[in-house]
Every structure is written in C-alpha cells, then in structure tokens.
Amino acid sequence: MSIVFYFCAMPVTVYLLPIAAYLLGAIPTAVWLSKYVYGKDVREHGSKNAGATNTFRVLGKQAGIMVLIADILKGTLAASLSLMVAEQFNADDLMLYKLALGFTATMGHIYSIFIRFKGGKGVATFTGMLYFIFPLAAITCTAFFLIVFIFSHYISLSSMSSALLFPIAAILFYQLDDMRVMLLLGLIPLIVLYTHRSNMLRLARGEESKMYLYKRKSG
Questions:
Q1: I need a surface site. Which of 2, 24, 65, 128 has the fewest CB within 10 A?
Q2: pLDDT in tens, 135-157
Q3: Cα–Cα distances in angstroms (integers) from residue 90 to residues 40, 93, 117, 125, 211, in the given order
C-alpha cells in the first residue's frame, strides 16, 4: 500500500509532464521545415525518413543542421521538465523520472501524432536527453560516433555503434547501481537497432548510402 500512497501523493504535474514531453518530441521538425520553408516534403525523397539524416541528403547541410539541433533540443528540454517537480523525488527516482521524460519524448519523435505516428529514428532526441542526464558518457559516445563515421561514412552504422556503447559508458562513468536505470539504459540500443532495421538490411546487402561532410572530387 505504501507504493500506492507514494504515487497518490504526487502532484498532478508529475503525471502531466510525460504528456508534454511526448508532444514536444512529436514535433516533426524535418517535415514541417521541409514542407513549409523549403516546399519539399522529406518523406517523399531520399530514404523517406522524417529525420535529420534524410534532411541532410534531401535539403543540404543548413537544413540538416537545423533539424539536428532541434531534434537534440527536444530530448534535452523534455528531460529538463523534471526540474519542475524535482523536489518530489529522491536522487535515484529523479534520475529515473528524467529518463522517463526523455524516453517519452523520443517515442514522440519516432511515433509522432502529428504525422500519423511515422516519425524519425530517435537518435538525435535520445542524444539530447543523454547530454542532459549523462553528459560525460554522451560526449564519449559522440566522439565514438564521429570516429566510426569518419572511417565508414555510414550515419546508420555510427548511430547504432554509439548507441550500443552508451549503456556501458554511462554505467562506468557514473557508477550506476540502480537496476531500474540500467534496464532503461539497456533499452536505448534496442530501440535504436529496431528503428534502424531497414538500414541493417541495406548494410548487409552493401546498399546503404554513404554520407560525406565534403564534396568528393570527381576523377
């Protein structure tokens, strides 16, 4: 019964913030920017994915960077909503609540109510959440992402590789021992792998598109 009383004693804001986090994450940055600013829907071009990577391919660096920053900020802002009710939690539960808000925002990004539940792949929004909660581990994984990308030129492979590294980095850097937190962290690579399942097939077939930060010289 103590658990029931614990949750009943929480202010209603604690239960409303996940809804706000979902709606924040569900903002389809790539779709709205491409349609209403550039006059071209990214879902009809390239990989047809409503995310930053496809925006880079379809609309170029400027649009891609804007979408990437916005999608990262969605995760950061969602997790930061926890500060509004931080006094309601102990340290372990607050970390869990931050993760819950970030996960909810990422699910909003992947399954956006604004575009018929077909959104992006969640990597940027996850990244924003992780920079807010576990900055050292997030920086490490960003560096690893860049290393993999420099050598492979595959955004998808870089994303999946850094996602697999993150739970390990977070546990080691922050000496985590809360099983609930570790289980949630373990879900991150699983979700990223799931949203990249088509990319994995293309990688296996040698059909995945590469991306370059600079224009390759012809000849």
A1: 2
A2: 999 999 999 999 999 999 999 99
A3: 47, 5, 34, 25, 44
